[in-house]
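Please produce the structure of this protein holding adenosine-5'-triphosphate.
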Amino acid sequence: MQGYRSASVMKPFLLRVENATVYRGDNEVLKEINWTQHEGENWAVVGNNGCGKTTLMKLLFGEILPIDGGQVHWFNSTTWRGLFEIRERVGFVSAEFQRQYDQNVTALQVVESGFFSSIGLWEDVRETQTRKAEAEMDHLGIRHLAPRRFLQLSYGEARRVLLARALVNRPDLLVLDEPCAGLDIPTREVFLETLSRRVRNRNLIYVTHHIEEILPAITHVLLLKDGRVFAQGKKHDILTGEAFSEALECQVSVQENGGRFWITGCRPHRKQ
Ligand SMILES: Nc1ncnc2c1ncn2[C@@H]1O[C@H](COP(=O)(O)OP(=O)(O)OP(=O)(O)O)[C@@H](O)[C@H]1O
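Below is the modeled complex.
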């Protein structure tokens, strides 16, 4: 779809993906991705199951590499920064983390692990770091969960603990990969409300297939389809029934209400 590419201007960028094509096995799962997030922009990455959202996140974090000269650049520099520096500067929330912690780890220790960008604590935590972790839990209204075993928390509680983990080191960029997956509607709304309070003036990437999760703070949308950029640009240009009907292969209307967007109706396109 033409006409949705954002204008490239010489503003500082947080990340830039250039001509990135990615294979998993024999499958070409990302195709010639070009995408730039500038300072001050908050992006939602949206698309159907299997369109390549998680693969794109893995590409950003260097877990997989593009072929044929594709590039990923971070923090306004084309010099390779090293994964450790990137992970230190980026707070990442993924529902997958919920299964990866040891069963004896407390919620407080999960938040503290955010200082080391690690799953689990392999280094000594300083007293000041513990105070900061407790303060972040206070801000998110989850201080009472600090001594609880992380794996015994409800999905909603655990997701807010992971948000505290991502925020505790004051990241330059916050990346949330389907953070509301598995949450019921009231729990999702509590999570989003907590998120809205804590992301003011912070750069954000929010990955989802539910456009109703796109918060007012989101300024831009990257819409993926079958591993390609289908459309990208300012939120109000992309969140339209026309663009989504084509990208989701389903006739939909998109409505805005109270700064949030909602899809109504869905008549799947008939397969040829
Ligand atoms: N390790 C792998 N080996 C082979 N194919 C893979 C691998 N990982 C992902 N894929 C394929 O790549 C495509 C994109 O997968 P990806 O997980 O990035 O999609 P997604 O948009 O995150 O999906 P969802 O919304 O369901 O999480 C899918 O067709 C998937 O089957």
